[in-house]
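Could you help me review a protein record that somebody else here produced? My question to you is simply how this chain folds and whether the tokens agree. Thanks in advance; the entry in question is below:
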Amino acid sequence: MTDPAFDTSVVVVGAGQAGLSVAYYLRRLGLDPGNDFVILDRGPSTGGAWQFRWEALRLGYAHRVNDLPGMAELDLSFDTADRHAPAKDVVADYYAQYEQHFGLQVVRPANVTRVEGLMDGFTVTFDDSSARHGGSAAATAGLTTQRVTTRVLVNATGTWGAPFIPWYPGLDSFRGRMVHTSEYRDASEFAGMRVAIVGGGTSAIGFLMELEKVAAETTWFSRRPIEFLEEQELNIESGSSSVRQQDEAARQGRALPSIVSTTGVPRSRRIQAAIDRGLLLAQPMFTRVTPNGVVLPDGREVEVDAIIWATGFRPELRHLAPLKLREKSGGITVGQGASWRNSRVFFAGYGPAASTIGANRAGRTIARQVIATLSSFG
């Protein structure tokens, strides 16, 4: 199905849950991996964003990881995976087996830096991104830039590469250590420290529990009261309000709201035990940062040695800037997985399809739309 005027018919950017789901269905619908469609992934290895998560994170500590479509063929399931091994290793291993089984031929590391429009297609520019995740300066200097032309683009980049830290007065004056979720590696790095943890989701809660017996003191700050659900696992699709808000924002081109702000936090056994021992008591958000700590709404200063920002991420869309898809309201208008400004650009794992089940469903829908789009070219 590849047009001789283009290198390939479809480029999928990202090989996490959403990208692999789209690839699976494109293959089922008759496209040849590596020929009719190409998958470009920034990570040095398999596993999507999971390969960069911290060592202590285990499956079941965070939101449920759903199986990829067709994973049953490999006799694999995250429901029966090892709960004692680091989640990043389990996911990376399962995804590696999945890619090999279905012959998806993912190109990595391939950091897509720019997508430009052509007549009835796109030029996708990417480079060897290994230096981005710990490579040397010499390796950075040796990056090779490559380009591939395509009829259709499927963006499945997720959010891990776009960490969000809200601005507070005095933020730049803080003399202690500040890290975002994306930079957190191990609790031992905060041994004996007074640590402020900011955020209202499962990552913040996980950090509190990991640091409980390691840090000298932990203080939890959240912009809103934490709603603990009765369910032990969060099924985002059951939170119809959250899905509706995500869908409305995507259709209107607005910045996407936080998932956890409308779904709450599942009350797993581990989290319930932490509630019972009084660990999970969130304080109102501080008003400013000082060189030595943070200032509470009542004016008192709390001295801390480190701040961990578990404040989430934003969709990673910088490489799409040349296509001018972003609206003045801050987002990209997306309906049924496709950009309303350019119908040949599809978004997998964006908005209401950002959860793992949603990504799988969107993969099937987007793959069908991609085939229909390619057929329209004759």
Remarks:
- The longest strand covers residues 145-155.
- The chain has a mean pLDDT of 86.
- Residues 177-230+267-309 form a domain with the FAD/NAD(P)-binding domain fold (CATH 3.50.50.60).
